[in-house]
Amino acid sequence: MGNAVRVGLLAGLLLSGADIVASPQRVEDGQRVYASACAKCHDTGAGGAPITEQPDDWPGRSALWEAVLFEHVKQGYLSMPAKGGEPGLSDYDVEAAAEYMLNLSHPSLPRDSAD
To answer: Is residue 90 part of a domain?
Structure first.
């Protein structure tokens, strides 16, 4: 799926009232960071990375999957280096990219809440 289609799809989900908390700007930021730092592994499965948009590649996730994923992205996990190997990325950048990936891979699952 092309990047413009992905951004359009996520923007459409935002406008449709789907259970997505990201603003259109955060979706765009997430797509940008995903393309530059994450896609090289998560589009191909390199190094055992779960493939984006392939829900079956993401088994056994925690009930607090967003929070856990955010920590994994920031700290590194298994073969994945911290911040996708881009140490200059901000926490906002990597969290936006993680949200982008989750929304593509599991659009109907609820997000973590602060409750």
So the answer is: yes
Of 99, 11, 104, 96, the residue nearest 51 (C-alpha) = 104
- Which of 72, 65, 62, 112 lies closest to 94 in space, CA to CA? 72
Q: Give residues with Cβ within 8 angstroms of 64, minimum separation 6.
A: 112
* This model's pTM is above 0.85: no
Residue 84: Cβ-neighbour burial (10 angstroms; 0-12, 13-18, 19+): buried
pLDDT by residue (tens digit) across 69-79?
899 999 999 89
Residues 6 or more apart whose Cβ sits within 8 Å of residue 77: none
Q: How many domains does the chain have?
A: 1
Can you give the residue range of the structural domain that contains 87?
A: 3-105
- Residue 52 belongs to a domain with what CATH number? 1.10.760.10
